[in-house]
Specification:
The longest helix is centred in the middle third of the chain and has 26 residues, at 281-306. α4 packs antiparallel against α6 (179-194), α4 runs antiparallel to α9 (249-262) and α8 packs antiparallel against α9. This protein is of the alpha+beta class and 844 residues long. It has 10 helices and 58 strands. The strands form 15 sheets. Strands 10, 31, 32, 33 and 58 form a 5-stranded antiparallel beta sheet that branches. Strands 1-2-4-3 form a 4-stranded antiparallel beta sheet. The protein has 3 domains: 3-262, Transferase(Phosphotransferase), domain 1 (Orthogonal Bundle), CATH 1.10.510; 311-570 and 838-843, TolB, C-terminal domain (Neuraminidase), CATH 2.120.10; 572-833, Neuraminidase (6 Propeller).
C-alpha cells in the first residue's frame, strides 16, 4: 500500500513512519478525498492495538501519511514458521478483538483484516494497520487470491477486501458492517492456530466460491491439538450468515478472555481412584449434584448477562422531508415533534408518513415539553415575547382544552407514571412538582444549575435529568438523594437526554459531543437495569448506534420493541456573495467548512471542516490541502495568520478550559501559546505588525472577561484599559483600532490605540464583527428575526444592509460569517438533513 520511510519529527523529537501512497491515489481527486476522510477517522482512533496516525498531507502531488514507527514483524512473517502456540494465539486474538471493538464503537470498519495488516511489536503487542484505509487501494489480484480486490468505495455491489479473508457478504458485493471484520478475524485466528489458511484455492474466483459454499477443515484435522471451546469460537466467527457470528468484537474478546483465564491449553489429568466413604455416598452425591446444578444455573445466568442485552436490528426511516423536528413523545400511534428554532408542535404516525401540525393547539408560541402516560395530554410551554416568564399548560390533544400549571419559565417537564403529577425545572435550579390539575405546587429539590429533559421512572421512585446538557443526575421522587448518575463512566463525554422503556428495564440516553449550540444530537446508549437471580443492574451502558448520523432524544415505543429518534446528518456548503448578481454562490467548490481566514498575501487559506472540526491549510483555490489538527483539538475561532504567513493561532477547548494554540501552516504539532497554568484564553487576533497577539479571557456572557495583549518579544501580558466584560478582540488591518463585543452581544466597542479611548457602536444583537480591508467599516451578522449582514462605519453612524439572508445557515459555533480579501461575505449554507427513524430492537 505504498512505500514506507523512517523519519524523525523534529518538533516532538520522535521517530515516525511516513507512508507515501501510490500515485494513482493522488491523481484521483475522488479517491484522495475519501482517503482523507479515512485518514481522519483512523487518526481519531486512540487505542493501544491500533496504529496511531499523526498526520495526512499532500506534497508535490504525492499523498502521504505520518504514523507511529513500529519495531517488530508482521503476523504474516511470524506465521511463515508455522502455527502459533495456543496461548499466544489467544493473547493475540484478544488484542485484535479489543482493537476492532474500539474502532467499531467509532463506526469504522476495517474491511481488509489479514495477517499482513497485523503487526507484532517487540514487546508482544498487536497493532492493527491500515484501519479504514485499505478499502481505498486498488491492486491487481494475485493468482492465489490473496491481494486486495477492486473497490471504489463502500457502495453495495462493489467487491472489496482480500479474497482469502473476505466475508460472504463482501464476496457478493453486499453492504457490510462490523461483522465482516469478525469473519476476517476468524480466518486469521484459524491460520494462527493451524498454520494453514481457512479458504485457499488456486485462483481468487475459486477461493471466493469456497467462502460462499464450503466450511474450512476442522482445525483438529490439521494435526493441531486445539481445545474444543476455542474451535467453537473460530467456527462462530466463520459463520456464513452474519447473524450467527458474534454480535460484536467486544463479545468476541470476552469469549477469548474466558478461554485465557480458564487455561486454554489441553491437558491430560491423571485419574486417582476416589476414596469411598461407606454410608455417606448418597449424601455426598446429592450435595455434589446440587452444587453442579447451582453452578450450571449461575454460569447460564452469567453467560446470558455477558451477551449484549439490547441491540438494533433494523432502521426504518419514517419521514423524508429532510427537516423534521425532534421526537419528544408518543401516544402509541403517533409521534409528537418539536422544532428548537421555531415554536411549533407537529405529529407523524409511528408507521411513517407526512408531518402535520396539531390543529388543536391554540396557545401562542407553543413549545412541546412532554406527553402524558396515557397519551391524551401534552405538556406545553407558551412563550411570550413581552415578558420573560412563560406559563406551563396541559393541553388535551383532542379538543385542545388547556389548564394552567405554573408561570416561571420551566426548562423541562415530565409526568409521573400515574399521570397525577408534573415535575418541572426552573432557571434558578429548582426542581418543582405540581398536581396535574394545577394545585399543590411546591419545590421538590434544589438542583443548583440548569436542568433539562426530565424523565420519571416507570416505578415512580426516581427522576433523572441532564444538568447543563453535560451530565446525568437523579433524585428520588421525594426529593432526597440527589447525585450524579454514572459519574465515573466516560467522564470526558457529555451525557444527556434519557428515557426509560415502559417496563423500566432499560434506560436509553445520548452521549456527546452535543455540539456548540447544545442541540441534543449524539449517539444512543442504553443501560440494562434488570434484576434477576445472580443478576444485578449492569455497571456500564452499551452503545446502540454508531456512524456519521447523530441522534436526538431516544423515545421507546409503548411495547418497548422500538426506539424512535430524529437522526441528523450535518453538512454545510461554503458560499460567497457575488458582487454582480447579489446571490450567494459556492466557494472553494462548496466544501463543508467555516472559520475561514486568508493569509496577508491572499495566497493561502485556512479553514475548519464542518462538522468534524479539523483545521486545514490550502492554496487560494483549495488545492494542496494540509491537515493541521486532529478532531480532538477542534478550533472554536477563525485561525489568525501571522503577517509573515508562517504561523496560525486559534482557540480550542481543553479539559482546563479554552486556550490559544499555535501551529505552522506547513504542518506539525500544535503547541500552547501560553503556559499550562495560564487562565482561559479565547478568540486570538494578530496585530498587523506581527509583534502582538490579543485575546479575551472569557466567553460571551462572562462579566469577568478582559482583553489581554501578549508582547511576543518579551512574552509579557498586559490588560487593555477599560476592557472589562468585553470579548472577541479583532485588530484592524491598519493596526490603529481593536474592536470587541459587549456582554450581551448588542454593542460593538472600538478601542483607539492612539487615544486609548473606547467608542460604542449600537448594532443590536449581532455576531462576528469583522473589519473591512481598509479599516473604515465593520461588518457584522444580525442573527435575530430578520437575519442579515450589515456594515457600519468604524467611527459611528447608521448600519447599512449588505444582504438579507434567505437561507438556513450553519457553522462550527452554530452559525458563522466571514469576509474574503475583497470584503465579499462568506457563509456556510446549511445542507444538513434531519428525519425521524424507528429502530427495531432485539432484547436478550
Amino acid at each position: 500500500m505504498g512505500e514506507v520511510y523512517r523519519a524523525r519529527d523534529s518538533v516532538l523529537k520522535r521517530e515516525v513512519a511516513i507512508k507515501v501512497l501510490p500515485s494513482f491515489v493522488s491523481r484521483d481527486p475522488d479517491r484522495l478525498s475519501r482517503f482523507e476522510k479515512e485518514a481522519q477517522a483512523a487518526a481519531a482512533l486512540d487505542h493501544p492495538n491500533i496504529l496511531a496516525v499523526h498526520q495526512f498531507g499532500v506534497f508535490d502531488g504525492a499523498a502521504y501519511l505520518v504514523s507511529e514507527l513500529l519495531v517488530g514483524k508482521s503476523l504474516r512473517h511470524a506465521l511463515q514458521r508455522g502455527p502459533l502456540p495456543v496461548r499466544k494465539a489467544i493473547d493475540y486474538g484478544i488484542q485484535i478483538a479489543h482493537g476492532l471493538a474500539a474502532a467499531h464503537d467509532h463506526g469504522i470498519i476495517h474491511r481488509d483484516l489479514k495477517p499482513e495488516n497485523l503487526f507484532i511489536t517487540k514487546d508482544g503487542r498487536i497493532k492493527i494497520l491500515d484501519f479504514g484505509l485499505a478499502k481505498l487501494i486498488q491492486l491487481q489480484t494475485d493468482s492465489d487470491g490473496n491481494a486486495p480486490t477492486l473497490t471504489l468505495g463502500t457502495d453495495p455491489g462493489m467487491v472489496m477486501g482480500t479474497a482469502g479473508y473476505m466475508s460472504p457478504e463482501q464476496v457478493r458485493g453486499q453492504s457490510v458492517d462490523h461483522r465482516t471484520d469478525i469473519f476476517a478475524f476468524g480466518a486469521t485466528l484459524y491460520e494462527m492456530l493451524s498454520g494453514r489458511r481457512a479458504f485457499q484455492r488456486s485462483t481468487s474466483a475459486e477461493t471466493m466460491t469456497a467462502i460462499l459454499n464450503d466450511d474450512p477443515p476442522s482445525i483438529s484435522q490439521t494435526g493441531a491439538n486445539i481445545p474444543s471451546a476455542l474451535q467453537r469460537v473460530v467456527n462462530r466467527c466463520l459463520e456464513k450468515d452474519p447473524e450467527h457470528r458474534f454480535h460484536s468484537a467486544s463479545d468476541l474478546a470476552f469469549a477469548l478472555d474466558a478461554l485465557s483465564d480458564s487455561g486454554a491449553s489441553p491437558a491430560v489429568a491423571t485419574k486417582t481412584p476416589p476414596r469411598r466413604w461407606p454410608g455417606r455416598t448418597l449424601v455426598w452425591s446429592t450435595a455434589l449434584i446440587a452444587v453442579i446444578c447451582l453452578a450450571a444455573a449461575a454460569w447460564f445466568e452469567i453467560a446470558r448477562n455477558a451477551a449484549v442485552p439490547l441491540r438494533i436490528l433494523e432502521y426504518t426511516q419514517l419521514t423524508h422531508n429532510g427537516h423534521a423536528g425532534y421526537v419528544l413523545g408518543t401516544d402509541g400511534s403517533r409521534l409528537y415533534l418539536i422544532h428548537f428554532n421555531a415554536p411549533s408542535i407537529e405529529e407523524v404516525a409511528v408507521s411513517g408518513g407526512e408531518i402535520e401540525p396539531i390543529p388543536s393547539i391554540k396557545l401562542p408560541n407553543a413549545r412541546l415539553m412532554g406527553v402524558s402516560p396515557d397519551g391524551s395530554t401534552l405538556l406545553v410551554l407558551s412563550v411570550r415575547s413581552e415578558t420573560p416568564s412563560a406559563p406551563l399548560y396541559t393541553v388535551q390533544i383532542v379538543g385542545g382544552a388547556h389548564r394552567y400549571l405554573a408561570d416561571i419559565t420551566p426548562y423541562s417537564g415530565t409526568w409521573s407514571p400515574d399521570g397525577k403529577l408534573v415535575a418541572y425545572t426552573t432557571p434558578n435550579g429548582d426542581l418543582n412538582v405540581v398536581n396535574s390539575d394545577g394545585s399543590g405546587a411546591h419545590k421538590l429539590a434544589s438542583v443548583g444549575d440548569e436542568a433539562y429533559v426530565l424523565s420519571w421512572s416507570p416505578d415512580g421512585r426516581t427522576i433523572r435529568f441532564s444538568k447543563n446538557l453535560e451530565s446525568l443526575w437523579e433524585v428520588t421522587s421525594s426529593g432526597s438523594n440527589l447525585h450524579q448518575f454514572l459519574p465515573g463512566w466516560h467522564p470526558s463525554e457529555e451525557k444527556c437526554c434519557g428515557r426509560w422503556s415502559a417496563s423500566g428495564e432499560f434506560f436509553a440516553f445520548l452521549v456527546g459531543p452535543l455540539g456548540p449550540t447544545k442541540v441534543p444530537q449524539a449517539q444512543i446508549y442504553a443501560l440494562d437495569e434488570r434484576r434477576a437471580l445472580f443478576r444485578h443492574p449492569a455497571k456500564d451502558p452499551i452503545r446502540l448506534t454508531s456512524g456519521p448520523m447523530e441522534w436526538s432524544l431516544p423515545i421507546f415505543s409503548n411495547d418497548g420493541k422500538r426506539i424512535f429518534a430524529t437522526g441528523s446528518t450535518r453538512r454545510g456548503e461554503l458560499v460567497r456573495l457575488d458582487a454582480q448578481s447579489k446571490q450567494f454562490q459556492p466557494f472553494l467548490g462548496g466544501i463543508s467548512a467555516d472559520l475561514i481566514s486568508f493569509s496577508k498575501d491572499s495566497h493561502f487559506v485556512a479553514y475548519v471542516t464542518y462538522p468534524d472540526g479539523i483545521l486545514w491549510r490550502a492554496n487560494w483555490d483549495g488545492s494542496d490541502r494540509v491537515q493541521l489538527t486532529s478532531p480532538s483539538l477542534s478550533p472554536q475561532s477563525s485561525p489568525a495568520w501571522s503577517p509573515d504567513g508562517t504561523q496560525l493561532v486559534f482557540e480550542a477547548p481543553s479539559p482546563q478550559g479554552p486556550h490559544v494554540w499555535i501551529v505552522s501552516p506547513m504542518g506539525g504539532s500544535p503547541q500552547r501559546l501560553l503556559p499550562e497554568d495560564s487562565g482561559p484564553e479565547t478568540q486570538p487576533s494578530w496585530s498587523p505588525d506581527g509583534r502582538k497577539i490579543t485575546f479575551s479571557t472569557g466567553n460571551i456572557g462572562s462579566r469577568e472577561s478582559q482583553i489581554r495583549i501578549l508582547d511576543l518579544a518579551n512574552r509579557q501580558i498586559s490588560t487593555l484599559p477599560g476592557s472589562d466584560g468585553k470579548f472577541v478582540p479583532r485588530w484592524s488591518p491598519d493596526g490603529q483600532f481593536i474592536n470587541a463585543a459587549s456582554i450581551d452581544g448588542s454593542t460593538i466597542y472600538v478601542f483607539d490605540t492612539k487615544t486609548q479611548h473606547w467608542s460604542a457602536l449600537n448594532t443590536g444583537p449581532h455576531a462576528f464583527a469583522l473589519w473591512s480591508s481598509d479599516s473604515r467599516s465593520i461588518y457584522f451578522l444580525r442573527w435575530t428575526a430578520d437575519p442579515a449582514i450589515l456594515r457600519i462605519p468604524a467611527t459611528g453612524g447608521e448600519a447599512k444592509l449588505v444582504v438579507s439572508l434567505k437561507f438556513p445557515y450553519a457553522g462550527t459555533l452554530g452559525l458563522w460569517f466571514g469576509l474574503d480579501p475583497t470584503n465579499a461575505p462568506l457563509m456556510l449554507r446549511d445542507a444538513s438533513t434531519t428525519d425521524v427513524y424507528a429502530m427495531t430492537l432485539e432484547e436478550k
